[in-house]
Structures are given as C-alpha cells and as structure tokens.
Amino acid sequence: MKLKNILLTVLTVACLYSCEDYLDVEAVSSFDSDYVYSNKDEISRALNGVYAQLLNNDTYGKAYLETFCLNSDVDMYVNSNNVSTNDQYRRFDCTSEGSAINKAWIAAYRGIEYANNFVYYLENSPLYDETDADIMQQMGEAKVMRAMFYHDLIVMFGDIPFSLTPTSANDNFVMPVVDREEIHKQLIADLEAIAPYMSFATDLDYGVERVSKEFCWSMIARMALTCGGYSLHPDTANTSKYGTMQRPENYTDYYKITAQYCDSVISSGTHSLALPYNTVFINECNYVVVNNDDPIFEIPFAMNSTGSIGYIQGPTGNNYEGETSGTNIWGKSGGSARLSAFYRFQFDSLDLRREFLNGLWYYDYDGTPIIRRDYTVHNNKWSKLWSSKSMGTNSDSNTGINYPYMRYADVLLMYAEALNELNGPGAEAKEALQQVRARAFDDQSKVTEYVESVSTSKETFLKAVLNERKWEFAGENMRWKDLVRNNIYGEVLYYSFLRYYSVAENSAGSSDYIERVETYDGKPGYLELTLPYNIYYRIVSNPGDVNVYPNTQLDILEIYNPYIATQRPTDATNPWSTADFYGWWNESVGCPTDQCLYSFFGFIRGDERGNLYVVDNGAPTTMPSDASNLPVVRYILPYPNAAIQRSAGAYQNYYGYLK
C-alpha cells in the first residue's frame, strides 16, 4: 500500500476527532498509549498520524503555497481594494481577526502536538532502544516533522509558543512564548542528535516520501540559515511600532552550521540534478517518485483527496455545470498561484526555466486555450493538466500531487550563500551555484562564464545566488523569505510596485519612474521601448512533446515573441490574433488602475491623485526618491485573536497589531 494512501486513511480517522483548541488534540489510535508504544505496528500507525498532519490544506496542502505566499518580484497576487482588511496577507494587510491565520495556527500546533506525543511516548516505551534502527529512524522522522512545523511558524509569526513535550505531560497548558533564536537552537540540537541514527532516502521504503537522514541535515541547514539572517523583531516598549530588522550578533556561527550540514548532504552523494528541470515537476504531476535526484523530501499527498498544489498552480481550467468537456478531461483547475507579469523578463533568454514556468494562457471548459491578459501570468511548474491520467472531468481542488518541501537545488544554493558569507566566493561556493545553473542551460560555456563574472566580490556573488533562487523556486514560497533573510525585502517591493506603476503610466504616454526601474534592473529601455504592449498569438495543435508543453493533448497557443515589441506577423492559412497587454491606465480618474495602486497596500501604495506612499509604522508617508531609506516591511503575522483569548492574557501582539 502506498504511503500516501496509508496517510489518507489515517487523516480520515483523525478528522473524526474534534479540535476545539490548538492544544486539545486526541490521538488517532483507539488504544491507550501504553499499548500503542509497546507494539511496533501501532508505533508505525502513530507515526503515520504525524505525517497525516502535513496534508492539511490550512498549512502545506494549500495555504502555505497560496494564502501566505507573500507578494514579491516573483510570486504575485493582485488586489484592487483601497482599504485595510483582516486577511489580505499577501499584500501585508491583515489583523488578528483573520480566519486563515487562526486555521493555520491551529493546524500547525495540532501537527506539533501529534509529533510531541509520538516523541514523548516512544522515548518512554519499553521498546525504545538506540540500537534498534527502525525505532530510531521513526524517532527522527517525528522530530524532523516537528521542526518543520515550528520553523515555518517562526518564519510567519516570529517568537512563538514553544514546547517539546505534549500537553498530557506538561503542567502548563499554555505554552510559553520563546525567542525565535532559542527555539531554532533547541531544534537544531535535537536534529543533530538524531541524524546519525537515520537512514538515507534510497534505503527507506517510500523513499523521499519519508523523512530521511539527508532531509534531517537539510532541515538543520535551513533553520540555521534562517536563524543567522535578518528578521523583524518587535519593539516591546511600544506595541504600535512595527519593529526593527535584526540578526544575531553571532550570526556567522549559524552560517557555519548551514555550510556544515549542506556539505554533509552534498558529500553523501545521495542526490543530484541529473534530470531536466521540467522533468522533476512533471514527474510529480504524474505521481512518479524519484529518490536520488532533486527532491529530498516530498509531502506525500493522495490523488483526488489531499493537496491542492496541482490545482492552484498551472493554468486555470474552467468548467461548465461542474464538469469539463471536449479535450479537457482533467476537470476544473484554479490557477490562482500566479507570477509577476515582469518575472519572465528577468531571465536570460537561453534559460530553459523561463518558457517552462511562465504560462501565458489558460483553458476554457472544452479545452480551448485562451490568452491570459492580466497583471500576472500562470506558474506552470505544477498542474493537474500535466498528468497523463485524468482525475475525472468533475474533479476539483485536491490533486494529490506531491510538494517537494526540500530540494537538492536548495541545499546547493544555501551552501553557496553560507560559504560566501563566511569566506567570499571561493571554489566550493562557485561550484554549488554552477551546478544549479548548469541544469538550466544547454550551453555550458555560458554557465561557467556567468559564474566567473559574478564572483568578483561577496556582494556580486550574493546577488547572483539570490537571483538563481529567484529563477529556481517560483511558486515554492521562497522568494520573500530569501529577501527578508538578507534585509532587502523593502527594496525589492519598492521596485516591484514601481514596475507596475510606471508601465501603467507609460501605457498612457510616459512615466517619470520608468527609467529608475530600468536602471535598477540593469536593462535600459526594456520597459519603455521594447515591452510588447501587443502580443500576437494563434491556436496550434499540440506537438506531443513535454519539452515544448507539459500537456501533450490539449491545443496550445503559439505566441510570436512575447519579450519584445514587434510588427504583426502574417500567415493567410492560420492568421494571428492580437491581444493588448499592460493597458493598466484608468482613464476615468487619470491614474494607474487599482490593481497597480493597492497590490502592495500594507507597505507601498498610491492614490487617485497621483501620490505615492510607503507605510511607516502604520502611517502612509511620502514615498522616498530611492530605496535607501525605506521603513520595514511588516511581513510578520499577528497571533490569532482566538489564541490570545485562549491564553488568558499570556500572549500579546506587537508589530502595530491592535490585538
């Protein structure tokens, strides 16, 4: 029986139990803990209960890849609302009353409680034996999953309630809030101690769908790199202030840990980047698990039952009266996890990732492709449409496509970033960057020349590593975290806003900001002179080649040079149609459209009178002429109001949140 099917059964059982409080979690098994942890089969079932918590749509199943994938120059969600809201997290605009954060909080702490229970009762089991490889492997799996839940909560909320013991074994039913660095230190030590007892993915049944030794090492590296980087810290003396960006004084110690454990993964030789970039994700869409390539840990969702990654990513697929028809046999797809309209212009023209990732069309219910004229493009990394087997014409959001929570490409780039911070761009750092970039280009001489050209200083190499991550991890909720860690999120958002704003102005005549953006991007004239405001396209038959388009049955659009302004092509046998792009000027009020003004609302925005503002501690202030003196980005989320109430006053919000 496949692991994802086992987890589906466990999750179904788990859902029968109520969870009124994020710490009020019942065990999946109907037996008491003494029986469960004195029987190896029951121990395995209990561990499956921990895995099942990863499948929740309020965390890894959907929300972390959509609701909490914050806007940047890569991942982008547009919004036209000109007032503050409770739950527009992606544009840095929310309150403690937002329902999604409460759901995510409950789901994550439920996962932690399941893991805490497993660790505690296994350690106190008569079967617990450090010489028993199976028992110690299972202990490691639970500890790593616990670290996942905690780490991602820290990234989202900062300092958080923390405990490594279950509520049943703890006299204090309200977890104390603990400093994020202290939490990461404890989790790193916990995983360092268990890692030697764990097995490599190729030696495990279900492979990378289970937590392995190399994933444990990778998780240590990710936590250490996050801990050593910048993050937003509260002003505890003034809860109305947004706080300041800080990093630990001993931050290089964490970069050393990152380098050490990335090196352990690399030296193990258990993973590579042998498969083409697109093949990695097309495999996942076809439920093919490869244990020795890029994926290090894939969250094992079950087809048609859990996990929405193949629904929110990829092109929209409309349905009619609940079903699709004609050549569209895949059912409805949402296509809501989008990319910035300008993302595709940031790639090298020969980068193989560019054409694979950036989707410029979607599908009607009968399989007819339709050009996407919008503020964003589709992220074609995953889609239910890429599967060779239909889930049914009435299928909906749960696709069962695995999400690769950790990839070898990430390990290589973390390694390059850490080594560069410690010693500058030496040979090992350059080699790690080159390995990732090599997969994206057919011409390898171009790769080596590029790496040498960006290795002139720590600053230029760091920029190259972050750019590589930008091109590599679209849709994986990575970009904003990379920018936060390096304290450049505000700068990138400043120019991301101005790209939309200046192009909107330019579509109506001219913009005073467009040259500023082009200078920052290092591409003079590309927005003002060569941006294709008209794109020519036509419907053509599917070539049946996944290297051209991942779906081999639906008709596709042939698009005539969507990167530069051109004259209309002619073909009498199959005429070209035209679509207007970037017409984002609101004629009725004489300014860019609301989507351009308000999609970064909580940090930077405009108004209908032509004024531009950045938000400084809650107050809109005149936007500076450059990005050198920007206020902090309040990316940190508030504790849910329900959690504060349950804590009887033990928890308090900072960062300018009212509750």
Show the helix and strand layout:
Elements: H1 3-14, H2 33-36, H3 40-52, E1 87-88, E2 93-94, H4 99-123, H5 133-157, E3 160-161, E4 177-178, H6 180-194, H7 213-228, E5 231-233, E6 244-246, H8 251-268, H9 277-285, E7 295-299, H10 309-312, E8 338-340, H11 352-357, E9 358-359, E10 361-363, E11 369-371, E12 376-379, E13 403-407, H12 408-423, H13 427-438, H14 444-453, H15 458-472, H16 479-485, H17 489-507, H18 514-521, E14 534-540, E15 556-560, E16 577-580, E17 585-586, E18 591-592, H19 594-598, E19 604-606, E20 612-616, E21 619-622, H20 641-646
Antiparallel strand pairs: 1-2, 3-4, 5-6, 7-13, 8-12, 9-12, 10-11, 14-15, 14-16, 17-18, 19-20, 20-21
Helix pairs in contact: 1-3, 3-4, 3-5, 4-5, 5-6, 5-7, 6-7, 7-8, 8-12, 12-13, 12-15, 13-14
List keywords for this structure.
659 residues; alpha+beta; Serine Threonine Protein Phosphatase 5, Tetratricopeptide repeat; 3-stranded antiparallel β-sheet; 20 helices; 21 strands; 37% helix
